Amino acid sequence: MNDALRLKVADLLHDNAKLSIDTIAKMLGEAPEEIAKTIDRLEKDKVILRYSAVVNWDKLETNQVTAVIDVRVLPQREVGFDSIAKKIYRFEEVKSVSLMSGGYDLQVTVVGRDIREVSRFVSEKLATIENVTATTTHFLLKTYKSDGVIFDDTDGERRLMITP
């Protein structure tokens, strides 16, 4: 299968998951059947894991809080950080876990109903995992841009004043 085509299709779907097969085919100058086969292969190979929308939660009435937690751990022999990351990502509250470079090892994104719920998660579940040595919790206050999408683009609404 054409790796360049796979990359182009994945990139287009990442930017807009609502694009139809026919639209992608026209954009890339390929046959719709070839695009359908490529998408099917990307899904089977677990390159495309899910289709989703970028949502500005601040514009909806939600009772939730998001926290980013830096976690320092002692890696385990022969499995490194993977075993601990697996324990963490299995919790329902956890939205993402990433291995990081720098002062902390893992970055964990958690969503809860309020600050107390996130605090309980950190103190009762996350900090009690064997080999977790430290955590630092940062609460998300406002999102300006996510996944390449600007949330509050008031600059686009400004017009230059033209005087005669």
Automatic annotation (TrEMBL):
One of its GO terms (molecular function) is sequence-specific DNA binding. Residues 11-82 form the HTH asnC-type domain. It comes from Alicyclobacillus hesperidum. The keyword Transcription applies. This is AsnC family transcriptional regulator. SUPFAM superfamilies: Dimeric alpha+beta barrel, Winged helix' DNA-binding domain. It comes from the Bacteria. Keywords: DNA-binding, Transcription, Transcription regulation.
